[in-house]
acyl-CoA oxidase (Marinactinospora thermotolerans DSM 45154), 1304 residues
Amino acid sequence: MATTSVPENIDTDVLRSLLDGRWAHIRQMARQSLRGELFAPVHGLTVEEHRERVARQLREIAATEVPRLGFSTAHGGAEDVGGSVVAFEMLVCDLSLMVKVGVQWGLFGGAIQALGTERHHAAYLPAVMSLELPGCFAMTETGHGSDVQRLRTTATYDPATEEFVVHTPDPTARKDYIGNAARDGRVAVVFAQLVTAGERHGVHALLVPIRDEQGRPMPGVRIEDCGHKAGLNGVDNGRLEFDRVRVPRTALLDRYGRVAADGGYSSPIDNPRRRFFTMLGTLVRGRVSVAGGAGSAAKAALAIAVRHAESRRQFTRPGSAEEVRLLDYLAHQRRLLPALATTYALHFAQEELVGRLHDASVGEPTSERERRELESQAAGLKAVATWHASATIQACREACGGAGYLSENRLAQLRADTDVFTTFEGANTVLLQLVAKGLLTHYRDEFGSLDTLGTVRLLTGRFFEAVIERTAARTLVDRLVEAAPGRDEEADLYDRGWQYRLLEDRERHVLEGLARRLRRAGREGEDAFEVFNNAQDHVLRAARVHVERTVLEAFIAGVDRCADPDVRNLLERVCDLYALSTIEADRAWFLEHGRLTPARSKAVTAAVNALCGSLRPHARALVDGFGLEQEWLAAPIAGGPGEGTAVGAAVS
Amino acid sequence: MATTSVPENIDTDVLRSLLDGRWAHIRQMARQSLRGELFAPVHGLTVEEHRERVARQLREIAATEVPRLGFSTAHGGAEDVGGSVVAFEMLVCDLSLMVKVGVQWGLFGGAIQALGTERHHAAYLPAVMSLELPGCFAMTETGHGSDVQRLRTTATYDPATEEFVVHTPDPTARKDYIGNAARDGRVAVVFAQLVTAGERHGVHALLVPIRDEQGRPMPGVRIEDCGHKAGLNGVDNGRLEFDRVRVPRTALLDRYGRVAADGGYSSPIDNPRRRFFTMLGTLVRGRVSVAGGAGSAAKAALAIAVRHAESRRQFTRPGSAEEVRLLDYLAHQRRLLPALATTYALHFAQEELVGRLHDASVGEPTSERERRELESQAAGLKAVATWHASATIQACREACGGAGYLSENRLAQLRADTDVFTTFEGANTVLLQLVAKGLLTHYRDEFGSLDTLGTVRLLTGRFFEAVIERTAARTLVDRLVEAAPGRDEEADLYDRGWQYRLLEDRERHVLEGLARRLRRAGREGEDAFEVFNNAQDHVLRAARVHVERTVLEAFIAGVDRCADPDVRNLLERVCDLYALSTIEADRAWFLEHGRLTPARSKAVTAAVNALCGSLRPHARALVDGFGLEQEWLAAPIAGGPGEGTAVGAAVS
């Protein structure tokens, strides 16, 4: 039905329960336990005070169920990977704590779990969970972040002593931006080029002690503090340099590569590229977690900005002394409500991704192709969700004016803390290129991740047809698409099948066009780098439109799970706003490719405006549905302390 | 000629000299004097340390020519308003210092100069210039920022004692976010509703002492600290509340409104609305300054990011061991180079605006219409330049990856400091609406600034035709437009006349469409607020496209001033990139309105890519042309201390 109307009364408990989803119990636990002075958001601390506070919070969390979630039951874990990701994303009271939890139990502990073998698990996991052993994940170097294959730290095996010699050959090989390194970490999982018997075997990970029990750097280890950062100053990022540091042979996390006492190398995966990407693939949980954390920060910012926009008034209506609430202005709605709709869409996409990650980690071993799809989905959502969070929190800050600039209102900190989310756990631009390569190769290439040349060569020989996989709500989406009118101009703008088909058609067209472009250039013998580089904007677009389509699919599936007719009706309108504002943002493409007529394109803009107006009365219910505790928001403009004096004032 | 080629050798001195423009001597003075430890950018200070440092810097500047620039020669000033704005924008070493300078000599001193009379000038200006008298500009209140007419602080005249009673009637009337209030200010220019003999005369400004010589709050004055902010923590923002504070009758800055000893009110401007907007209009200098400051911050960020992108390498070319410089990637060029081109365009627009402001303040009295045009130009450029700075610094941060997140590399601070520029000195959304109203009324309405109802009513009665005034390079632009082919499809994309005509035509169409829409609704008797609000996106668009057109005009005029053929040729390409990336960003509109065919729209995107490629070798020269001192950039990744070790490292 062509309508933007929504029901009047929304039960926010129903809404919250739907959003809480499969790991509702973890969310509830977080709401009950992250309370009181220790977990209250604070601001204006010095770096040292902030680090100390986060360390205290971390110790408190170490005593709960949370650290166990991500580890195998054999060593005291709860083997609830989905729960561990959800627990991470709930730490919105201070994103420094969120990241510190991620470093200790996600990256550091996760690497031992995923890359180590039984010996490492038994020896380390209990102390990792209890926080007796705080650690680091030392992958990035000053000279190489995105290009992990070219890391320069070396681990050279010495059969005489049965030790590895870990070494930083030059300053670009220094480990950089390493969380937990500047203050707390005692051991680091160090990624290094493994060398044995004069032969290089590519990047492997080793456990290297960096501090003794008294916190002094170990001999040969140089530790530097990265110092003050734009945000996340509760996390002690540092730099590590190794001067021929010796560790025993058992320090190698050897699930994917072993070195025998005599220096002989063996691996269950013969092909070195495949081995490398298999090892990297185990890090997928980190990316899923970051996408979730970005989502939480966007939700918190929207909750603050919407509450403020509902109470704050500015300028009178003509002919009236009554001042207008900010959220009644179209420009204000435009700033906040499409961002709110997209936050909902990403929430459902995240929920689905966490479920897939969880099922892949606890059930039957998955195929390599399935693993690659999951990695690709995680990479794409991480990129889109973190950019969305940056833009949304920024819009919220501006929508709160000068009040938004004061630290007491939290937006400044949320903005600064999340800013690096677009960079760490894989720079977004690099991640989107991985997604595009996966789509171009149908996840079928030999090694898990072709390089540029390989991708161009692979495409050169073959006919390419885009495969659009409907995964989240396959049957439902099939039905919706089939029910949509065949001719686009006849379809109602609010027809979900039409909206979906438009995004699906765009994905296919962009991808096939890209494949043709690369194949043609490849055939004509052009330089592979130039070919790929000249198409880089096309490559990024292919990934982005793919993610946007899959996010809509997840939103459709999420709405379909809602049994309450009023809430469902509301969510249908929110889904309309996501779909139509996504189409609007890219309407130039739809016009250029004859997918929208000019008149219909203008109608899309009008529909977005209309939806903003009809969702405006429900903005508060929609942010309440996120279920963020009032004390986590902690902003006077969002109803925290101080609000009463400023708003409920009598007129003299 | 349809070309994207540029000459090989660029003389950056010539480029810098062109950019330095009319106030080159001020820029040179800044380069020579803002040096050494005292003016070195720092980070990670506590709020108190930062405030103390900025106060020391301010005292140093008080001893220079800078404070005198903005004041009349009669009281020791230099009466060089343009110079004062340029001096402000050069303070890029610490934007807290920039803002503090702006508060003391621009807002506080400027208000005394513009709103006071001879008595105030003689009594206060020397002490303002010397910094003996630090002061505040207390306009914004907790409850009213954008809507200055509805401020709630009162100044009630008591003829018995010949005093004004300044009072804060309720907490929403508290003066908020006031720079210089929390720590240093001794006097505030307080904007309040003037009441005498029981009659209200609207908002006027009075000098109110807030601290004694020992820094203690004056009786009846309550001062609160706004505390930690997202940025600008070297500026001591505070809140002021007045409990029936008495000041003498002479405290009223009475250029536009006088109160006689008996309480009789008189003003040279009878109409209260016109009086109000005349008073507000004197604040135009602040907006021009903020636009300039935003430009400087964007330039500094680009200088850092371009230098980094020229030296940093990541990933190898296929079949080669050589790693690729970041700036060779199309996606990286896309991030930085259109932003660089727009920064150039805005520089020339700013240069022209400063010139107009200067000439209006030192020459013959200008007409009310000219003043309104200047105010509108300042409002529009302030909005566009500050949003551009936010987006550009953000892009630079992301383009520098993890290094961009470290405070030592300055981008974090530049981003955080400038964030509030979009809000203060007029929230951008409000400013753009002022611009649109000016365009709709041809600056001819009676009162200087019609309200919503007035605008709708004014339009209802009349036929509206958009007037596109070519001001910056009238003859030249006329010639270019005439020389462009009559049929758009025949025009070369690089034809400046065609580019300009496209922007001009868009401006006319958007504005006339908006006028028709408002008139129609007005005739049909719809609610004026609803009519205007439903068109708010259209209103904002009208202002934006107007500014974009005038900025292109200024860029064309700037290039025309360049005598060096190579530099001129380079700037022509930069101007192409500004024009075409501006068209590209809004190509949906051009497609929707039949101004671009789909094929031509795609060609615009291809041209932007091609221009990025051809300008890439000159990116360094273009940022060097800004003439920012190396020590102001102070980022290790931009060649500061530390760069050598990380980049020039030997391979072991």
Q: What stands out?
A: Residues 12-134 of chain A form a domain with the Butyryl-Coa Dehydrogenase, subunit A; domain 1 fold (CATH 1.10.540.10). The CA atoms of residues 380 and 432 of chain A lie 6 Å apart.
